[in-house]
Every structure is written in C-alpha cells, then in structure tokens.
C-alpha cells in the first residue's frame, strides 16, 4: 500500500535562521490520523505548509500518495492539491459574497474528482454541502439568507471544516481547527470530524496547542521548541 505521506530526511530553515523543521522520517497510511503538538514557534505551521506544498526550498523528500510535489510544476501542484487535499487553516478564507452552501461547494468547482465523490455520496454537490453543514450543526435552511461574514467565528470555522471535507479528500490538513470553540463545542466538533473522515478514509494531520485533543488520536508527533 502506498503511504499517503512519506517524509525522509526533511530539513527546512528560514533564510538566515537555524533549521526550524528537522524530521528524519514520517509515514502515514491511508486513513491514519496524526496529532502534531509542540510549543509556539516549534515549527508546526511550517511543517504543515511544507507538506501542503505551499513552502518549498527544503532538503530531503516529501511524497504524498507516492508523488513528490516539489517535482511538479506549479500548475500540476495546484491540481494535485485541489484533487487530494482539504485544508483547514487559521485564516478560514471563506468568500463573504457567497452563502454557506456555495462556500462549501468550492472544492468541487476546482476538482472533477472531488465533485464526483460528492455526487456519489449525496446525489449532487449541493446536497453534499447541505449534508455536511447539517452534520456540523449549521442547518442550511436556518442560515441560507446569511453571508458567512455574519456568522460567529466558531460558525465560520465549521463552514471551513465542511468545505475541507467536501468530496472526501485523500488528506486533510488542519491547523488549530478548534481554536475558536469552547470545550463542549470542541468535543462535538472533533467527534463529527473524525466520523466524516472515517467514511471517506481520509488521512488527517492536525496541529494544535490544545494537548487534550491528543486523546482523539492514535499517533502523536511532538515538535520541540527552539526557544
Ligand atoms: N515567513 C517567515 N519568515 C521567517 N521566519 C518565519 C516565517 N514564518 C515563521 N517563521 C519562524 O519559524 C518558526 C516556526 O514558526 P511556526 O509558525 O511554524 O511555529 P508554530 O509551532 O506553528 O507556532 P504557533 O504555535 O505559535 O502557531 C518561528 O520561529 C517563526 O518565527
């Protein structure tokens, strides 16, 4: 079986600084979930950005589903990401002029593969967006006349989660996805996220300061702080 993530001898330094990410090896199989923890500044977001192909200029190798993103052209890299990756970052990047459902449908406008998976699951892309919003406790009929800009931060975070899950990506990368949620909302969110990931056999990489989230994961990677 091809690993979804296969990292060998990875090292990355910002210009003029000591290496911030040094990882001898890391492998994640399809459907595995990894929790990445470490103090502020230990390189958690940098590692996610390297794996997501947003940051280049590293030494060593990062393969996603057998594919080295660094060897692809920018266009091929964008295509690979659109087809295979859901991202849930601290900046939600929701489009304020679109309603909730249309925001959640976005990954399917960029990827035929994701569109096909959504249609297979729910009959249409819109139906799948509505199902995910409903699952994340944002019933679309209740919110249909609202712009995402009129939602609370916790609600926006859940719209972004539904969008990341759309079309069952191979890999979901999440950076502090529960930062805007209280303890109870966080537990409900994690439960739902993991259930949805399981159905799509999606591999998860999740970064958080919140060590209590480790309980949801079978594997943890601890990055050590430099400061
Ligand atoms: N664009 C950049 N240019 C130069 N240095 C950077 C840049 N982004 C991050 N760094 C540095 O890299 C180190 C790791 O940052 P990173 O954001 O990956 O840490 P983190 O573990 O995610 O932190 P936090 O938990 O506070 O979000 C820090 O020392 C930071 O100052």
TrEMBL record:
Keywords: ATP-binding, Nucleotide-binding, Transport. One of its GO terms (molecular function) is ATP binding. It comes from Denitrificimonas halotolerans. Residues 5-227 form the ABC transporter domain. InterPro entries: AAA+_ATPase, ABC_transporter-like_ATP-bd, ABC_transpr_LolD-like, MacB-like_ATP-bd, P-loop_NTPase. It comes from the Bacteria. Pfam families: ABC_tran. Transmembrane segments: none annotated. This is ABC transporter ATP-binding protein. Gene3D superfamilies: P-loop containing nucleotide triphosphate hydrolases.
């Amino acid at each position: 079986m091809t690993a979804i993530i296969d990292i060998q001898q990875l090292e990355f330094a910002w210009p003029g600084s000591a290496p911030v990410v040094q990882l001898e090896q890391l492998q994640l199989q399809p459907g595995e979930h990894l929790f990445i923890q470490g103090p502020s500044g230990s390189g958690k977001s940098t590692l996610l950005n390297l794996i997501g192909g947003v940051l280049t200029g590293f030494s060593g190798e990062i393969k996603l589903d057998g594919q080295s993103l660094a060897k692809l052209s920018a266009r091929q890299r964008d295509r690979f990401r659109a087809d295979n990756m859901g991202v849930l970052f601290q900046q939600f990047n929701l489009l304020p002029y679109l309603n909730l459902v249309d925001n959640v449908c976005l990954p399917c406008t960029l990827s035929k593969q994701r569109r096909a998976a959504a249609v297979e699951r729910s009959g249409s892309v819109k139906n799948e967006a509505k199902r995910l919003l409903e699952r994340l406790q944002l019933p679309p009929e209740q919110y249909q006349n609202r712009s995402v800009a009129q939602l609370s931060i916790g609600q926006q975070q859940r719209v972004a989660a539904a969008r990341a899950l759309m079309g069952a990506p191979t890999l979901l990368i999440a950076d502090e996805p529960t930062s805007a949620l209280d303890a109870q909302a966080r537990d409900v969110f994690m439960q739902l996220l993991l259930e949805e990931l399981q159905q799509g056999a999606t591999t998860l990489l999740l970064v958080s300061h919140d060590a209590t989230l480790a309980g949801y994961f079978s594997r943890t990677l601890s990055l050590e702080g430099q400061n």
